[in-house]
Design brief:
Number of helices: 10
CATH class of the largest domain: Mainly Alpha
CATH superfamily of the largest domain: Transferase(Phosphotransferase) domain 1
CATH topology of the largest domain: Transferase(Phosphotransferase), domain 1
Structural class: alpha+beta
Radius of gyration: 20 Å
Oligomer: single chain
CATH architecture of the largest domain: Orthogonal Bundle
Bound molecules: adenosine-5'-diphosphate, magnesium ion
Distance between the termini: 30 Å
Number of domains: 2
Helix content: 25-40%
Length: about 325
Amino acid sequence: MAAQNNAALPDGLQISGYRIVKKIASGGFSIVYLAYDEDGNAVAIKEYLPSSLALREAGELAPTISPENLPIFRIGLKCFFEEGRALARISHPNVVSVVNFFRANDTVYMVMAYESGRSLQDHILRRRDKGEKPLVSERFIRKMFSQVMNGLREVHTNKLLHLDLKPANIYLRVDGTPILLDFGAARQTLKADLPKLYPMYTPGFAPPELYSKNGNLGPWTDIYSIGASMFACMVGAPPQPADQRKINDKMDGHLQKLEGIYSADLIQVIRWSLMIDPLERPQSVFALQKALQEPVPEKPAAGKFSVTLDRLKSLFGGSGQPH
Ligand SMILES: Nc1ncnc2c1ncn2[C@@H]1O[C@H](COP(=O)(O)OP(=O)(O)O)[C@@H](O)[C@H]1O
Ligand SMILES: [Mg+2]
């Protein structure tokens, strides 16, 4: 992700009925703050501020945007707003709750319920630094991802795709339940014409169809990223990027190394989700959830991979209707 070079809003600032407490995160696209509403409830406010287009010096509130960048900035702003509006319709325990939107300082702000916890990415890295083996348990992966997928099903039911699923965008509450954050759909909309705004995909977690301009996107696109995120939980690093896999696919070897640490069933489910051809993957989150919950009856034998995959597909509807 591009670095965020912009100054954050000052601590203590009152803005549209909220009081900014402090900046909690910043990326190339936005800055996230902890704030309080008028009733004293903690909220997280995400400020649209793509650093490649808008510049804000310390002490200023509104960014400076060159006339050349203004049209792109405005399209991005509209998409950010649309994304938030769509998200605001979704109410699900595993999807971040958007409670408000407002305009100020020549940009737009999305207000979310504040969640106390840390990202799955931080969780994995902490465990990796501590030398935990296995990095995370199979039980944790199965339980946590099945909850993530409950949220994702709700998103897909609302005709939205996430498009930027990865451990950094899965947030773990203190009680361990996951929430989906940071819906990249807005950025995706911008991708076709506006490469300047943002590198749209995160290498390793993005399926091949996100690399191409007219890729066929659907639930299978997020499903690839789920498989990639599960893999990242097991090895502490993202899978081989999809564009490299198309040239020299090393994923099978990487997955084989996990045998003995994780069950063959789980590894097989990940292999299925990470198929390069979108049609070869589970076509709906429901199909993937079922595969994760119900043990695959036969252990895959070495070299018999395609047979086992066919079995999986016939059991769980590999090319069923998108959900
Ligand atoms: N609702 C929230 N509650 C608490 N922290 C949040 C919330 N939303 C975002 N954050 C924090 O901000 C970080 C970045 O948020 P994200 O939406 O992923 O923005 P970015 O576009 O910068 O990646 C998250 O990893 C998390 O630490
Ligand atoms: Mg993010």
